[in-house]
Amino acid sequence: MLLGRRRFDSVSSTMATSPTSSARPGNRGPRGRASRQPTQPIEPSPSGSRYRRTGWAFVVLALAVVTGLREWFGVSGVAGGVLHHLAAGPVGVLGIVVPLLLGALGIAMLRVRRLGTVHARISVGTLGVLAGVTGIIQVTSGNPSLSLSLGIAPLEDAGGMLGWAVGYPLAVLFSSVAAVILFVLLIAFSALVISGRTIAELREQLAERRGTADQQDDASGGGENLATRVLGAVRRAGGRRAQEDETETRTLDSYDGDEPFRSALETEKRPRGSGRRKRTRSSSTGAADSADPMAPHDPDDVRDETATSVLSGLSGAADSPVDVPLGDEPVSPPAVRPGRSATGKSKGARPVPPAEPNAVTEETPSVEPDLADELGMTDMAEMASMALPDGTTYSLPSESLLESGPGHATRTEANDAIVEKLQGVFTEFKVDATVTGYTRGPQVTRYEVHLGRGVNVSRVTGQEKNIAYAVGSDEIRLLTPIPGKSAIGVEIPNSDREMVKLGDVLRSGAAKKQAHPLVVGLGKDVEGDYVVTNLAKTPHMLVAGQTGSGKSSFVNSMITSIMMRATPEEVRMVLVDPKRVELTIYEGIPHLITPIITSPKKAAEALEWVVREMDARYDDLASFGYKHIDDFNRAVRAGKVEPLPGSQRVISPYPYLLVVVDELADLMMTAPKDVEAAIQRITQLARAAGIHLVLATQRPVASVVTGLIKSNVPSRLAFATASQLDSRVILDQNGAETLTGQGDALYLGPGTSAPVRVQGSWVDESEIRTVVEHVKRQLEPEYRDDVTVPEVKKQIDEEIGDDMDLLLQAAELIISSQFGSTSMLQRKLRVGFAKAGRLMDLLESREVVGPSEGSKARDVLVQPEQLQETLAWIKGEGDAPGSESAPAEAADAPDHQPATAMPASDSRIAESAAGSDINSDPPVAQSWDDDSASDDSEDAWSLTGRGSSW
What we know:
By secondary structure, the chain is of the alpha+beta class. 40% of the residues lie in helices and 9% in strands. Strands 3-1-11-10-18-17-16-12-15-14-13 form an 11-stranded mixed beta sheet. A 5-stranded antiparallel beta sheet has the order 2-6-7-9-8, covered by helices on one side. It has a two-stranded antiparallel ribbon with strand order 4-5. Strand 8 (477-479) and strand 9 (488-493) form a beta hairpin.
């Protein structure tokens, strides 16, 4: 055995120092061939510390047995008296419970690897209870004391040494009655310490159980008829809706438009006991559940809405998972109704009964009670069809159109095997760290590692390669620490991955809790909780990842979520699809404000229209005195907003406007300046106007996702990337390069620095088509004509021909510099002398420059302030610069003073221009002779030595 141990240590050290040694050509078998014999796993022998702990546990159990025989049955030998004094001496007549306490301590030592804070809490609470009970016994027994003649015998019949130590002084100081009252308070406080709850938490739990019982009574009927039940359900729903509206009104009335939202992410905190695993060292020991966890549930029972809680920050997920020993067989709660835990409770850690390793928990989120089925309706959404302003009725798609996904397995044998491998790595490399538990998600499982006292975190992070080698995966991710916990997280992909369906996410408690139309389903986090986000709080999002990572799936889930939850009067969309195939399935839905845009040039025009729409909305907000579009819409519905006097406008609420760009890279390649400027204005100002932007790209490079765009888009959703550089472009930190793909993503919300890992939801194309057909059957799309301007063919001078771009550049260069030189055009535009001279002649014919004066630069006749007007005139889009004011000035000018400052050599052009109509065609170029050129003048042509021949 010793020889085998040494061989294992030597092999381990060799593999740690040279991981590639096994692949070298020199490693051959006896006959020169590569050895193909499989390596047999060698199990390391248990350490001495584990044997010592087990040995002490058995010693404690043996002591409990012999003490119980003496105290309960009077069976003992010579040592019976000693055992009695050991049991009754400390606690007196409570010595009868000492065997039970010793047995519990021994079992705890066998079940866990080390005693943590939870066991310390239970020990302190138990000691407090013993002190209170023994103190009461001591005081009520006459408060005896130690005697030299009798020793501790009087105390053994009372409260023992502990009762005498706490009871005697209190009885002397405050009287026996006061001492008893104090001991009762001590017992109550110690019981709270043991339970791990406060009085307020206990009250909430009792109220919740009472509410659950009331709901069960309502579901069972309670002797009431169907009409009474319907009326009660309507009243309860109306009360909840009124309360939500009142809360939302108070929130928005106090919202100043620039105040950041608390959190854009919403997670469904599942009932404790439904899917988390952790060691008993960090468990909360609650009262035993009286309900039978294995009892079957009636399929017609009313489903409780799953308890939800808003994350105060994206660093959330600080709640302790369910606590069960990792060393036992894999267990999982039985399949239960959505919204219930396996024990029928909604909160609190509960022990999970053993089950088959492959047992799963059905976590399809809860829906309303089956009241709709009794009324002959297919879905609760049809009970509350929405009436549109034009009198038509619009019903949201039924939740049944979206399929449910498979159940969620909370523990498998593969997870337990990885726990042993991780612990083996720490043991072999002598790192004082312990795997205390894990939380299993649909794609990855997060294993929690607690360090020993004085151990540096780098000791664990430095073992990343060894951990990857041990578990056989290069896609591991280390969290140092887990947000909200003093633990290191090791995220490892599951060998049996699960699919997250969009229907389950939208039916979850996290989605049902929010009535906002811009709530979309993201998926599930690492802890298995459903995650949704509100685009109104985001308020703009960047979605990026390499090809096949799940970006398009998220876009489909987002648009489908909007169609499932919002009417066309609430949300309108602008979809930009330069790839022409990703979003064509949504063509014709009534939520669109324009047909799907596939041309990058038209997409830039659409973004400019969004800017104009944003300005128009802000004009209304400023005119009527509101800071946010929600406040304005609420006032319009209440009739508090009236048109200005003399206006014929009919004021109606503004819908939310969602702009989705499926591929930002194509737009940035076509018109980078215009697109970047439009995105900058939208992302800076559009939140309060109800306009939200979602940018998606599969090229997360700095030339596409510029710093200006990133600085104004606070929310990022990063799917798997090819390198750390791409991850830093999206998230400003590493992490996306370690994702597994297939919807695995990191979500970084506004105002947070720690991304949350989520598994994106999936919706089949058949489900999308079903939802699209449902909404298209009810309404036709109403497109606006001013979103994209149709192309107008402009009449270009035949004289200009194909030189329009060069002519515009030459005009901009000359007007900006106020220097009309042909040689400058040659240098700046990189054209020949003939082309530069022709451009100068064209500018002269359009009165941009004056005539040639030999080697001198030509006079520039247009001021820099008239640059844009001149360029538009050259392109045929406007009038000549100064054409409206020139005739008036000429009429008012005296006879001896010219209307405009023109060179003397240009008098003929000035005269013809003054006498012509402002809408007349531009003057025709005339030929000029450079008679004024002196012999000593130089220009670009004369410097070549061929000026005389010209």
